[in-house]
Amino acid sequence: MYSTQPFKEKENKMGLDMRLSATVYAMRGSEKESTGLVNMITVEGTPITISAEEVASIEITICQWRNASAIHFWMLRQTETENDSYVKIPCNRGTLKMLLSDIEEVLADESKANLLLPDMPRLFKNANAYDDLYFRKLKQTKEAIEEALARNLHWFSYVATS
């Protein structure tokens, strides 16, 4: 299920906020022009009317996490990203399929957690704790990725803020 909650930075609380999103590009040509959709959205309390012709792309939130360090660490290792704070990391369907495969393997055999999806060492006080919360976050991620892949989305990005 896609989240409808806005991604907000937490200024006063220590932690890691993470988001996986997909960019959907607007259709060009006669099919787009024929829809003529007009939508009203609210930005910071101000209503704005947008027609379909004005939209080049939209970003859909696929999944949001807080302190899911195993997912974060996996993304950093797979994309070979060093500076991870506030950096939008592009990833493709293949990357998400690899993450999904690792999640499914860990959910089938919990002893593989430390090998395939380890927590980031010393990031949080309960790091390396493969508890119920750890596995719930894996299941949440699995469901979100499966839904995104089923919807045939293609352009993904991952971002974390601390």
Stretches where pLDDT is under 50 for at least 5 consecutive residues are 1-14, 30-34
The structure class reads alpha+beta
Radius of gyration: 18 Å
Order of helices and strands: EHEEEHEHHHE
Oligomer: single chain
Spatial order of the strands in the main sheet?
A: 4-1-6-5
| Average pLDDT number | 77
Integer count of domains: 1
Straight-line distance between termini: 24 Å
Number of helices: 5
What form results from the Cα inertia axes? elongated
Give the fraction of residues assigned to helices. Answer: 25-40%
Main sheet makeup: 4 strands, antiparallel
Give the beta-strand count: 6
Strand content: 25-35%
Describe the structure.
- The chain is α+β, with helices and mostly antiparallel strands.
- The protein has one domain (17-26, 57-161).
- It contains five helices and six strands; from the N terminus they run E-H-E-E-E-H-E-H-H-H-E.
- It has helices at residues 30-35, 69-79, 93-108, 113-116, 132-150, and strands at 17-25, 38-43, 46-51, 57-66, 89-91, 155-161.
- Strands 4-1-6-5 form a four-stranded antiparallel sheet.
- A hairpin with a 2-residue loop joins strand 2 and strand 3 (46-51).
- The longest helix has 19 residues, at 132-150.
- The protein is elongated, with a radius of gyration of 18 Å.
- It starts with 16 loop residues before the first strand and ends with a strand.
List the main descriptive attributes of the protein structure presented here:
single chain, 162 residues, 5 helices, alpha+beta, 6 strands, 35% helix, four-stranded antiparallel beta sheet
